Amino acid sequence: MIRRVLKSCKYSSRKGLTPAAPVHSNKEDPATQTNLGFIHAFVAAISVIIVSELGDKTFFIAAIMAMRYNRLTVLAGAMLALGLMTCLSVLFGYATTVIPRVYTYYVSTALFAIFGIRMLREGLKMSPDEGQEELEEVQAELKKKDEEFQRTKLLNGPGDVETGTSTTIPQKRWLHFISPIFIQALTLTFLAEWGDRSQLTTIVLAAREDPYGVAVGGTVGHCLCTGLAVIGGRMIAQKISVRTVTIIGGIVFLAFAFSALFISPDSGF
Fold it and tell me: Which of 54, 59, 142, 263 gives the lowest tally of CB atoms within 10 Å of its CB?
């Protein structure tokens, strides 16, 4: 029996036959790669939005309006504005994907580095009362809006300024959201966010990351910041150190720029 086995082995070696080796593919599963891209974009978006929005003008707008008016109305108006802005920013960023990814990847990395350096410089030069100055500026702006609402109330007759309802005309519950306060929160937040650092960051992220992950992560980040502002109000607005948040934000931006040295543009995330 042993002799037969040896003969067969010799015959195989003479014929040049060798046992087939298992083939291992280095190519990742497309579904796994897509999930990793989504998760990476989600984490990147939510982290940069949080460090950009805490102590920002939109944060103070939501905080102060929530102290004066119905919190749910303020939250709905602010979140609608931020959701629209996030979707628009993602579309702007995704439109740049017609350019080869290697160019948009390194251009976005350079922008992250610039944003990070600027935030670090701004944070180190800020005074400890920087947040209080921003808070007072927003309060003055909202005071002007309140005066306009008072004039409108006198012209249109008695009504509830907080909900926009009138004592003479009954309105349905869903009209509680379609009120002057809802419109005010929507317009003020949208205008304050337009051209802001967080919008530019979302555009840059959408140009290099998974757009769905950026959209979801950016929206969740805005929800967390705005919800915190609405619930905490003045107490949180006064406790937050804008200087510290700005410095941390600069470090986060530089960390994303530094990560480009280890991640290939063609890695998929």
Answer: 263
User: Considering the domain boundaries, does residue 167 fall inside one?
Assistant: no
Residue 73 covered by a domain: yes
- Identify whether 187 is part of a domain: no
> Cβ contacts of residue 203 below 8 Å, gap of 6+?
89, 90, 92, 93
Tokens of 38: 């989504």
**Could you read off the pLDDT of 152-202 as tens digits, one per residue?**
666 665 555 444 444 444 445 555 447 788 888 898 889 888 878 888 889
Query: Per-residue pLDDT tens for 20-55?
Result: 444 444 445 555 656 678 888 899 899 889 888 887
> For residue 104, is it within any domain?
yes
Q: CB under 8 Å to 37, separation ≥6 — which residues?
A: 209, 210, 213, 268, 269
- Domain range enclosing 218: 34-150+210-262
- Say how far apart CA 34 and CA 128 lie, in whole Å: 43
Instruction: Provide the whole-model pTM.
Output: 0.66
* Alpha-carbon span 107 to 109, nearest angstrom: 5
Residue 109 in tokens: 């990395």
Q: Which two tokens stand for residue 261?
A: 């040295």
- What distances in angstroms separate CA 241 from CA 35, 47, 68, 88, 229, one per listed residue? 36, 17, 23, 30, 14
Question: How many structural domains does the chain have?
Answer: 1
C-beta of residue 180 within 8 angstroms of C-beta of residue 163: no
CA–CA distance, 44 with 23 (Å, rounded to integer):
36
